[in-house]
Each structure stands twice: as C-alpha cells, then as structure tokens.
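Researcher: Next entry in the queue.
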Amino acid sequence: MEKNKPETYDKYIRAITDISQAITSDKYLEDILKLIVMVTAKVTGVEICSLWLIDESADPQKIRLKATQAIAPDYLKDRSLGLDEGVVGFVVTHNQPLIIRDVLTEPRFKEKEMAKKLGLVSMVSVPLQVKDEKV
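Model: Structure for this entry, 135 residues:
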C-alpha cells in the first residue's frame, strides 16, 4: 500500500483546523454545517456532500437535510425523510455505512431524477455519532 504524501496530511490538518475554528467561533450552526460539507467534499474529492441530521422535535422523528454543496439551493428547501426512508434512513436505523455503486438501480435511493440530471452514479453514506448517539 502506498504511503500518504506529506501534502495529503497537510490538506487533512488544514481541513480539521478550518472545522475546529468554525466550531469554536461565533458562527451559526448552519454556517458550521456548510463548512463541514465543503471541507469534506474538498478533502475527499467528491462532487456532492450532504449532511442530514435527526430532527428529534418532529413527531415522528425525521431526518432533515441541513447542509450540502454543489446542488441547487432549491434542493435544500425543507428536505426531510422518515427514519425508515431512503438511503439516509437505512444508514441511520442500521447505524452502518452503505456503499452504492449505481444509484439508479438502488431501490432505496429516492432522487433518481436529480442523479440523472447531475450525472451521479455512486454514493457512500455514513452515519455520524456523538458519544454513542446518532446525529
């Protein structure tokens, strides 16, 4: 296995530093979440990165899209899924990552028209946790 180059580590450290500075600043949560998806997309080299959070105030609970980049702002407007819906719901309820090679053939993937329009093919979805609690 090839070792990471020092420039790669520098990129990761700069990304973590940017996120740390945002978290400790007076920025609003929306700005912090947007920074997280932008930095994550840049570091990983992906075209689209989205962050969904569990809305515990909803009854029943929902998962809401809170931040993304590289997608039209209209995509962000009140996007939510039930805990048992879509790829995001599956990842949250099963608390495990999911790799999809072709989103157009994946029954759990809900945004097939968007995928066609943007030329999306594959995706990775990963659950986030803070101290053993789903985020």
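Model: The two ends are 33 Å apart (CA to CA).
Researcher: Noted, moving on.
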